[in-house]
Amino acid sequence: MHLTKWLQVGYLLSVIVGFIYAQETTESPSEYYQESELIQQIRKADSLFYQGVSLWSSNADEASKFLKQACNAKHPGACLYLGSYYEQKSSQRRSNISPSESKKYYQLGFENSVQACQQGAAEWCITQAVSLIDGRGVAQDIQKGFDFLEAMCEQDMEGACAMLGSYYFYGLNVAQDLQKAQELHLKALELDSKACEENRMYACVLSAEIYEKGLSVPSNPHKAKELYRSACALHNQFACDYVKNMP
Fold first, then answer.
1. pLDDT of 156-188, one tens digit each?
2. What region, left, alpha or beta, does residue 215 occupy, with left being phi > 0 and alpha being psi -120 to 50 degrees?
3. Residue 120, Ramachandran bin (φ over 0: left; ψ between -120 and 50: alpha; else beta)
4. What is the pLDDT of residues 119-129, one digit of tens each?
5. What CATH architecture does domain 3-28+35-188 belong to?
6. How many CA atoms, within 13 angstroms, populate the side-chain half-sphere of residue 96?
7. Cβ proximity of 150 and 180 under 8 Å
8. Alpha-carbon gap, residue 75 to 134, rounded angstroms
9. How is the chain split into domains, by residue range?
10. How far apart (Å, rounded) are the C-alpha atoms in residues 109 and 115?
11. Burial call 195-227: b when 16+ CB within 10 Å, e when fewer
12. End-to-end alpha-carbon separation of the chain, Å?
């Protein structure tokens, strides 16, 4: 799998899975905790981000319009997708788009993820780690990125476990280790399955991704589709749109 293509999937996976933790915060808020203005702004831009993601594979140009609006609201995921969008555009023959446009959005995505992570949105800490490993938007620091993911996985953040497992599974920026990948993916599955059984919003998608792609488990499209349907029933619009496009 091409590295750029994988990281697009990785960004999407980490963002979606991370929403589990954001939802837990809103469902069980501490009397001392209040989301910052930035986090509230990002949450409001989620719908624009989802619209962009849903259109991404069929019409990237149209998707970019929604993603730009979300990125302007400092949505890290939207900015990262725009970085990928302009990276592809600038590489096309006779393109008049400068590679600096891609770098600008990758950097915005990283900077916004750092701010969001620091202000309590754990899902963007995962994205921050991926950016460090990939070296888009920030100087590449593979070890630091892996250290971040390992620390978050130890705290039972399933998105971090899944991302870490996938790096070892594909051997991207690390020596391939299928046994370690399996351990990490199975931990992510266990954590997400529990969240799915408890009907937590935005749960089930991670498990669906793992079964769909056959990450350390036998590929099972039927089971993946059922899990996407479960996620759709929990009002995950991305999952609903995805189910429609699955064979």
1. 999 899 999 999 999 989 999 999 999 999 999
2. beta
3. left
4. 988 888 988 99
5. Alpha Horseshoe (1.25)
6. 0
7. no
8. 19
9. 3-28+35-188
10. 10
11. bbeeebbbbbbbbbbbbbbebbeeeeeebbbbb
12. 22
Residue 232 DSSP symbol: H
- pTM of this prediction? 0.80
User: What's the number of CA atoms in the CB half-sphere (13 Å) around residue 91?
Assistant: 9
Conformation bin of residue 36: beta by default, left when phi > 0, alpha when psi is -120 to 50: beta
Q: Round to whole Å and give the CA distance between 198 and 202.
A: 11
Whether the Cβ atoms of residue 184 and residue 165 lie closer than 8 Å to each other: yes
Write out pLDDT tens, residues 59-80: 999 999 999 999 999 999 999 9
Is 195 in contact with 203 (CB distance < 8 Å)?
A: yes
Q: Hey, which of 8-22, 30-44, 61-75, 110-124 has the most confident mean pLDDT?
A: 61-75
pLDDT band at 33 (very low <50, low <70, confident <90, very high): low
